[in-house]
Specification:
Blueprint lengths: L2 H14 L5 H18 L6 H13 L4 H20 L26 H8 L7 H16 L3 H5 L6 E2 L4 E5 L5 E5 L2 H14 L24 H14 L8 H14 L4 H8 L4 H4 L1 H17 L6
Antiparallel strand pairs: 1-2, 2-3
Helix pairs in contact: 1-2, 2-4, 6-8, 6-10, 10-13
Length: 294
């Protein structure tokens, strides 16, 4: 069996057992095709792993790209060791380049209000877009999660939605009164006027042709609404997710509660938002306190 056969088995494992998205799987495949080509004719050991890192640095990949490629290599060889194809993982002890901390992009409350007011109130597509914006900001869902929603997953009595997140893990998210109202208006006045079909009868959000919305379509909707609202910075579905978490923590929410709502496996992933709130506090302090100004 060749290394490419092992790669095919690993990719199948990512899809069937880890339930990774097509985008993530493609990144793994691209990284590992490059790795396999590099290791061709070499003894696969820790020296080869270090030489691979040197090769990535020579090609002037960014630290973030190098970190991702090493992570792909580590996961691949961990799989090979588990399958008893490889005796050890030569990348396990290889240090990953330290990445600069990058704070997530988020909107301030006044920007959120402008964004939510951007869609047309009367048009079916406007009602749909308003419901999408309200729901993303109210729940902190990922764009892939909101596009997979069906109408029967929404509980209007409890203001809850069952969401299928990363790794095929189900969680319950909460939504507020504004999202409740926007969603009801869309379902009663907007969605019936869009040309649905039998295949998408269950889907919550559909396009003008009746097909289930894709993540890319939602990204375009949000970008168009942001431009209409006069927001200069780039706004994506993830911007609303970041804003959701930031505003909850700024309002005094418990970090573990926010972790649960976001569907984060590790608390450290959620902790990045505490840095954002501290930065915001510093900005407010510097602007407002008379002895803070320089």
């Amino acid at each position: 069996m060749t290394k490419h056969d092992h790669l095919s088995n690993f990719i199948n494992y990512l899809i069937t057992e880890r339930h990774y998205s097509p985008h993530t799987v493609n990144n793994y495949k691209r990284d590992l095709v490059f790795l396999i080509a590099f290791l061709s004719g070499r003894k696969v050991d820790r020296l080869a792993a270090r030489e691979y890192l040197i090769e990535l640095e020579k090609k002037r990949y960014s630290r973030r790209s190098i970190a991702r490629k090493l992570s792909s290599a580590r996961s691949f060889f961990r799989f090979l060791v588990r399958e008893k194809i490889q005796p050890l993982n030569p990348f396990e002890s290889l240090l990953t380049p330290k990445l600069p901390k990058k704070l997530p992009n988020f909107l301030y409350p006044e920007e959120i209000i402008s964004l939510l007011e951007a869609p047309e109130r009367e048009a079916p597509l406007g009602l749909r877009d308003r419901a999408i914006l309200e729901l993303l900001y109210s729940t902190g869902m990922r764009v892939t999660e909101i596009t997979k929603l069906n109408q029967n997953t929404v509980d209007f009595d409890e203001n809850e939605i069952r969401v299928m997140g990363k790794g095929n893990k189900e969680r319950v998210v909460l939504f507020g009164s504004q999202a409740h109202r926007a969603l009801q208006e869309y379902l009663k006045q907007g969605r019936p006027k869009l040309r649905g079909n039998k295949k998408t009868a269950a889907a919550l959000f559909i396009g003008r042709r009746g097909t289930r919305l894709t993540p890319r379509q939602v990204e375009r909707i949000i970008g168009n609404c942001a431009r209409k609202a006069g927001i200069i910075k780039k706004v994506t579905p993830h911007t609303l997710r970041h804003s959701f978490a930031t505003h909850l923590l700024s309002g005094g929410a418990d970090l573990r509660m926010v972790q649960e709502l976001l569907g984060h496996v590790s608390l450290s992933t959620t902790q990045v938002y505490t840095h954002i709130t501290k930065e915001r506090l510093k900005q407010v302090y510097d602007a407002a306190h008379p002895r803070a100004r320089r």
